[in-house]
From TrEMBL:
Pfam families: PfkB. SUPFAM superfamilies: Ribokinase-like. It comes from Alteribacillus bidgolensis. Requires a divalent cation, most likely magnesium in vivo, as an electrophilic catalyst to aid phosphoryl group transfer. It is the chelate of the metal and the nucleotide that is the actual substrate. Residues 4-281 form the Carbohydrate kinase PfkB domain. Its main location: cytoplasm. This is Ribokinase. PANTHER family: RIBOKINASE, SUGAR KINASE. Catalyzes the phosphorylation of ribose at O-5 in a reaction requiring ATP and magnesium. The resulting D-ribose-5-phosphate can then be used either for sythesis of nucleotides, histidine, and tryptophan, or as a component of the pentose phosphate pathway. Pathway: Carbohydrate metabolism; D-ribose degradation; D-ribose 5-phosphate from beta-D-ribopyranose: step 2/2.
Length: 300
């Protein structure tokens, strides 16, 4: 195993419905398919990193219910350490209702037990954070818990990657703890004013879907082009990107090489149905990158 990656975040059961047309207010439409799959941004990113060979630990909470037991077993099967994933009473397991339509998705999240990942819970796990190369965070647990996790990471010289989704105002104190911020273009525009964009862009890796990834090195903006691939389901593509980015950075890759790797992993993920089911392994990503370089006549 390589350096440890600890994901602190949400875990949900995703209730996925495929529809030809998204219903308007007051309208009923017939769905084409329904399935339940493990999800939650935190869990998705943990599984993505584990599938790519990361030594991944997960800090989170589920309800003391059927979904919670199923999710814990699933995470264990995916190779994620669940020593710090615990059931709680008083909250049901979190769920996400996902509408799939026209090669895109709309998602409603009910936090449930993810609300129980409090600052006190995070503080209980300082040793896990201190022993990690990277912690990976999102915004589906309380913001004050994200802040506490980033603060403890900085105290212990652990790198912090924050995926600011769902988008939420981020205080300067939190931003100053973050090593890499991974908004998509929409989130980046919502998070920052024009002046803030200039001061924060060196911190950001901005994902743009089919248009690739934008990041800054030595004050120079760089773009990695997206891949033209057949899209089946975009659910979890951003989570795949974040998990892959964490793995690459934990292995000492430059931000450019890490983004190239994560961009390819995300491109592979959209070609299959389901967030975690579509996540690739290391061999698949390496083959995909190599074959695309060969197609373009690029030599290593």
């Amino acid at each position: 195993m390589g350096p440890r990656i600890t994901v602190i975040g949400s875990i949900n059961m995703d209730l996925m419905t495929k529809v030809g047309t998204v219903p308007q207010q007051g309208e009923t439409v017939l769905g084409e398919d329904f399935t339940m799959v493990p999800g939650g941004k935190g869990a998705n990113q943990a599984v993505a990193a584990a599938k790519l060979g990361g030594d991944v630990h997960f800090i989170g909470r589920v309800g003391n219910d059927l979904y919670g037991r199923q999710l814990m077993e699933h995470m264990h099967q995916q190779g994620v350490s669940i020593d710090n994933l615990e059931p709680v009473t008083g909250f049901p397991t979190g769920i996400a209702i996902v509408l799939l339509s026209e090669q895109d998705n709309r998602i409603i999240v009910v936090q449930g037990a993810n609300q129980a990942v409090t600052p006190a819970v995070v503080e209980m796990h300082e040793k896990v954070i201190a022993e990690s190369e990277i912690i990976l965070l999102q915004l589906e647990i309380p913001l004050e818990s994200v802040q506490k996790a980033a603060e403890l990471a900085k105290k212990n010289n652990t790198k912090v990657i924050l995926n600011p989704a769902p988008v939420h105002f981020l205080p300067e104190t939190l931003l100053n703890y973050i090593d890499v911020l991974t908004p998509n273009k929409h989130e980046f525009d919502q998070l920052f004013t024009k002046t803030q964009k200039q001061s924060r862009k060196s911190q950001c890796v901005i994902t743009k879907g089919k248009d690739g990834v934008v990041f800054t090195v030595n004050d120079e903006e760089k773009t990695i082009e997206g891949y033209k691939v057949p899209v089946v389901d975009t659910t979890g593509a951003g989570d795949t990107f974040n998990g892959a980015l964490a793995v690459a950075i934990s292995k000492g890759k430059s931000i450019s090489k890490a983004c190239t790797f994560a961009n390819a992993a995300a491109a592979l993920s959209v070609q299959k149905l389901g967030a975690q089911a579509g996540m690739p392994n290391m061999k698949a990503v390496q083959h995909f990158i190599l074959s695309n370089r060969q197609k373009k006549g690029i030599k290593d």
